[in-house]
UniProtKB/TrEMBL annotation:
<dbReference type="GO" id="GO:0003676">
    <property type="term" value="F:nucleic acid binding"/>
</dbReference>
<dbReference type="InterPro" id="IPR036397">
    <property type="entry name" value="RNaseH_sf"/>
</dbReference>
<protein>
    <recommendedName>
        <fullName>RNase H type-1 domain-containing protein</fullName>
    </recommendedName>
</protein>
<feature type="domain" description="RNase H type-1">
    <location>
        <begin position="132"/>
        <end position="255"/>
    </location>
</feature>
<dbReference type="InterPro" id="IPR012337">
    <property type="entry name" value="RNaseH-like_sf"/>
</dbReference>
<dbReference type="InterPro" id="IPR002156">
    <property type="entry name" value="RNaseH_domain"/>
</dbReference>
<dbReference type="Pfam" id="PF00075">
    <property type="entry name" value="RNase_H"/>
</dbReference>
<dbReference type="GO" id="GO:0004523">
    <property type="term" value="F:RNA-DNA hybrid ribonuclease activity"/>
</dbReference>
């Protein structure tokens, strides 16, 4: 092969799409996914707003470019991205579990602004005020000196007028996720095994979206499968006699 062969020639010989075509293909695929999303998804809302722009090409934005590519595809192939139906949501026949919308609007513990923190405090306090009387409430937390590093788990349980604190060393070398998971596990074990036979409803608040997502939304985890399964088994057992709710809380809210 001549040493002066162009990149385009090499791509054709290798069966690789030119980079520009590959980029357009990915953009169209992503646009199709966004179009089929629920209208409550933030990026879907942003896409709908972009469609109202009369000249999207004047804005340097991935969404603007995707819209223009979709228009070109419609002209050349008569394929209309906007005809893609929204995801079907079946109600009544099965339970649908999705992360609450405030997970995306209130940021994370690393990125949350002071305004978001105040709104998070208001939201959690409102949830607590709306709980039925005599609801047992637990707040869990994990800590880690380094990640990985020495880590521990803790929780505080409020049962009527009683208050109990749990602390537990988890590992000499673990992660913050492991500590957060173990903290939730400690509460479930405590409620199931000890002096809480009168509990009718239990609400657990964790400040770890990852831990809650893994337990309640079946998010995938590369590690800690044994601990995760133990939590799910204990949760399933408790749900037979206790109304159990596990929710994402916010740092500095009440404790």
């Amino acid at each position: 092969m001549p040493s002066t062969s162009s990149l385009e020639v090499l791509q054709i010989i290798g069966g690789v799409l030119p980079l520009e075509l590959r980029r357009e293909e990915i953009a169209i695929r992503e646009l199709a996914k966004i179009t089929s999303s629920f209208t409550t998804v933030p990026i879907k809302k942003k896409l709908e707003n972009w469609k109202t722009e009369s000249n999207p090409e004047t804005y340097i934005s991935p969404i603007g470019k995707m819209i223009l590519q979709a228009d070109d595809m419609k002209k050349e192939t008569s394929i209309e991205v906007n005809n893609i139906e929204q995801q079907y949501e079946c109600r009544g026949m099965c339970a649908i579990r999705r992360a609450p919308e405030y997970w995306t609007t209130l940021g994370s513990s690393k990125t949350r602004t002071s305004e978001q923190a105040i709104e998070g405090q208001r939201l959690i306090k409102q949830q607590l005020e709306e709980l039925p009387p005599n609801t047992t409430v637990a707040f869990t937390d994990g800590s880690c000196m380094g990640n990985p590093g020495p880590c521990g788990a803790g929780a505080i349980i409020y049962n009527n007028e009683e208050e109990e604190t749990i602390q537990y060393p988890v590992s000499n070398r673990g992660s913050i996720l492991l500590a957060e998971l173990v903290a939730i596990k400690l509460v479930l074990e405590k409620i199931d095994n000890y002096n809480y036979r009168n509990v009718k409803q239990l609400n657990i608040y964790s400040d770890s979206q990852s831990a809650i997502g893994i337990i309640t939304l079946n998010w995938k985890s590369e590690n800690y499968h044994k601990t995760i399964q133990e939590i799910k088994n204990r949760k399933k057992k408790l749900e037979q006699k206790v109304l159990l709710s596990t929710s994402f809380g916010h740092r500095g809210t009440l404790i």
